# Entry
Amino acid sequence: MQIQLESQPYSSIQADALVTYFFDGDNKIDGLLADINRGMDDRLAALASGGEMTGKQLEMILIHFPEGLDAKRLLLVGAGKPNKFATSDLRKIAGAALRYLKSRGVKKFIFLTREGERGPAAAQAVVEGLVAADFESNKYHTEKKPDREIQSVSLAGFDAGLGSDLTSAVDNGRVIAESQNFARDLINEPSNHLTPRMLAAKAEAMAKEVGLGVEILDERKIAELKMGALIGVAQGSVEPPRVIVLRYTPENPRPGAPVLGLVGKAVTFDTGGISIKPANNMEKMKYDMGGGATMLGAMRAIAFMKPPVSVIAVIPATENMPGGRAQKPGDVQVAMSGKTIEVINTDAEGRMVLADGICYARKLGCTHLIDAATLTGAIEVALANVHVGAFGTPREYLDKFLESTKAVGEKMWPMPIDDEYREMIKSDIADIRNTGSGKGGGAITAAWFLKEFAEDVPWVHLDIASTCWIDEGRPWQAKGPTGVAIRSIVDFASKL
Ligand code: BES
Ligand code: MN
Ligand code: ZN
# Structure
């Protein structure tokens, strides 16, 4: 899909459709829309007064052969109440418009922004919305759908006087959304097409393509480093584990400057191990590498955007299988840090692989940490598929991260991590146990387990178990992997 900034007047651009948006306010037909309405003999005003055009968020009004426009269709998208509108809503509006028009066979359209949204932030949001909405996966269908393809989108109405600020916003928007789509492609892959070794090979290829440093730790190196928690999980599978390490170094790094560590859970399939999961929905556990894919996507975007901070990604990758050598409930494993873990439930494997991932990231010199993981079913109970559960210490560090989530329009909610929950992972026989002893608070005890390895290093933990994959599509987003958290992490890295 081509995306270009257009300086020609919108009314004389040839296209299959022209898209713009309008608000649920007293005066729906104002500004730009008033101009379009004038060319159309007041027909928009008639729609508005007739009650057919309310401005409700993502309401779609399609008009064929609009008078006064060279485009063949006019699509008006509801933008909701004007006082609730934010620039990041443009992502949904542009994305929903793309999916609506794509399903109708449109090949080329114009996105006309409104007065007040003419700058780089708006342009970036629109491009992100378009590119992410264009994502779909039909890799394993042998009969492909008829060619429904958006070939080109022209961006109109933006402030051309902003010059290179505007073009770099368009470039950044594309990079970020393509990096989300890169992660989404990985998350979609079935586990027989994406073992830990295959994931490592794909990460390595991506790193070389975009100019990141890369090192893949194999099972020998992992044993040498005494990553006992990761090995404990991996030993139930015939597929050997890998640890993927990617490095981004800015030009002229300052000595003593912060180093951001991104640790992602990449369990390429989670059967639960000996504490095996029920068959129902188990196929979805191919997406248990979503945290690792998130960090690969973030690193890809960082490689292009070149923020002034060093970033290291550490991605422990393994299967969780109930093979003959599998770890068993009651086993005690010695993590890389030296801490001992009593394995109460082999299905609480994500925190174990992250324990060694976090420890290794610290060993590599990371001064600040973010981890992302499809860690607990409990986070779905707490937040459904709306918010990512965000944990972290110290609180100021978490708050700074949450500012990034707001800036990029990703919903995340701060979760508590009070000392009372620490009691629940005490073990009779080892330093900690891998599940909570109490009832409830499952996402929080999991986070506490990770904190035992992050210790005093500023750390944010994102539980994306319920947000990394959606079972039903949204107007602006296909069903399946969402690519959530990448935008926030990239924004945060650029501000650290
Ligand atoms: N990968 C799962 C968490 C998960 C559940 C991700 C649903 C996506 C959708 C994780 O490894 C797991 O099994 N967690 C257990 C922990 C429990 C045994 C303490 C859970 O949440 O049930
Ligand atoms: Mn599990
Ligand atoms: Zn898991």
Q: What stands out?
A: The radius of gyration is 24 Å. Residues 267, 270, 288, 349-350 surround zinc ion (ligand 3) (CB under 6 Å). The chain has a mean pLDDT of 97.
